[in-house]
Amino acid sequence: MPQTVRIKTKREIAEYSVEIARGNLGNAGRWAREVLGGTRKIVLVSNKRVFDLHRGQLVKSLKSSGFNPLVHLIEDGEKYKNLGTLEQILEAFSRFEIARTDAVISFGGGVVGDIAGFAASIHLRGVDYLQIPTTLLSMVDSSVGGKTGINTEHGKNRVGSFYQPKGVLIDSNVLSSLPKREFTAGLCECIKHGMISGKGLLDQTVSVIEACHQDRVDILKNEEFAGRFESFLADQIAFKAKIVAGDERESVLKTDARSRKILNFGHTFAHALERATDFRYFRHGEAVGYGILFAAEVSKKLALLDGKVVNLLRDVVLRAGTLPSLSVVESDQVFQAIRYDKKNIDGSLQWVLLKEIGKPVIVPHSQIGDGLIRRTTKEFISAQ
Ligand code: GLY
Predict the structure, then answer these.
(1) How many other C-beta atoms lie within 10 A of the C-beta of residue 180?
(2) Gap between the Cα atoms of 377 and 379, Å rounded
(3) What is the pTM for the complete model shown?
(4) Which atom of ligand 1 is nearest to the CA of 189?
């Protein structure tokens, strides 16, 4: 006789803090001790460039709190966020005999955070992990919210998990050594948050962009600006955290303006650009810079968004810095990558568009149609 056994588990409640302050690398040991308590061993996952720049301060601080961190370095760049690198990380965790009472710290940008977080989520079915993001993009976006994963030949973030870190530590001083391209890429994600959040956050982002037109290293040393910048980071993160708290796992059925999907504004086109160039040409945030403008353009074509707002947004993205030329990109390849995405998400790709600043709206691809997207892709790429 058929039987049914009902299983009810209580969803784990994750609550964690993002600590933001200049010089925080020097507090990493105390912070890790507070967050992890009696955790025995920690493994730092980083890349060579970041680790060479900041190892002194970080390792000293961890040691002074009684940690003796093991280190695993990965290659730098989106093209290394793949299964091969994941395998090497997992192999290192086993070689280091990382147990469930131990912990992982990711120290780097979005690539390091996403892949180290994913490895932490599957090693022994989950060990604690902490994030110390070192790029603007990873500070305001990828280190918060628990999305982890890798890219595969089938696309961006094809394999991954929702796995929240135990804590995030931000030292805004590290941004002084961030390459300019990375900084521009981060600003594009900040603009994205501003566009979907509202005028307040967008204006604040524009004023930071204006200030950073002066020498970034100097301006970050300026006491008054550095304090303002920390508040800016906190406001960016608080916006994202509010959306994540309401829809942690990006529910497939949720399509209102509070859905976590709105954080993907600009990402359909951005992911297609990245895939069409084999993850080697754009920084993720740079592709997002183009992606948010593309989404604004589609919104205009559907008579959702005023052309004047599209021009204003274009101006804001241009002021964030120079984006790599689209002249190397084949519009048909980008369109095929968008279609491919559509096929792989249950045939029901949803576009995040804009009705006005702060008013995102989710529109099914079926309501827009291949024709308009193909035409807009072609026009957009040849116009840049
Ligand atoms: N970066 C989009 C999200 O975390 O949902």
Answers:
(1) 11
(2) 6
(3) 0.94
(4) 1
- Strands 167-170 and 18-20, by their bridges, are parallel
Dihedral pair phi/psi, residue 66, rounded to 5°? 90, 5
Residue 320 CA to ligand 1 center (angstroms) comes to 21
Mean pLDDT score of the chain, rounded to an integer? 93
Terminal CA-CA length for the chain:
66
Give the C-alpha separation, 327 to 6, whole Å: 57
* Residue 193 beta carbon below 6 angstroms from any ligand 1 atom: no
147 pocket-lining for ligand 1 (C-beta < 6 Å) = yes
Question: Which residue CA neighbors atom 3 of ligand 1 most closely?
Answer: 263
Which of 252, 263, 362 has the most ligand 1 atoms within 8 A of CB, as the residue to mutate?
263
Q: Is 161 helix (H, G, I), strand (E, B) or coil?
A: strand
Encode 71-84: b = buried (16+ Cβ within 10 Å), e = exposed.
bbbbebebebbbee
3-state secondary structure of 281: coil
Residue ranges of the chain whose pLDDT lies below 50: none
- In angstroms, rounded to a whole number, what is the distance separating the alpha carbons of residues 273 and 384? 14
- For the Cβ of 338 lying below 6 angstroms from any atom of ligand 1, the answer is no
Helices vs strands, H then E, count in the chain: 15, 10
Place of tokens 């990711």: 106
Pocket probe for ligand 1: among 111, 131, 142, 197, the residue whose CB has the most ligand atoms within 8 Å is 142
pLDDT tens digits, 185-212: 999 999 999 999 999 999 999 999 999 8
Residue 301 tokens, joined: 């074509």
Q: Which residues are catalytic?
A: 125, 147, 189, 240, 250, 260, 264, 267, 271, 284
260 CB near ligand 1 (under 6 Å): yes
3-state SS assignment for residue 52: helix
- Please name which of 384, 109, 152 lies closest in space to residue 278, comparing C-alpha atoms: 152
pLDDT at 88: 98
Helical spans, DSSP H, in the chain? 28-36, 48-64, 83-95, 110-122, 136-137, 180-197, 199-211, 216-221, 223-246, 267-276, 284-301, 307-320, 331-344, 365-368, 370-383
What pLDDT, on a 0 to 100 scale, did the predictor assign at position 156?
85
**Angle subtended by helix axes 48-64 and 28-36, to nearest 10:** 70
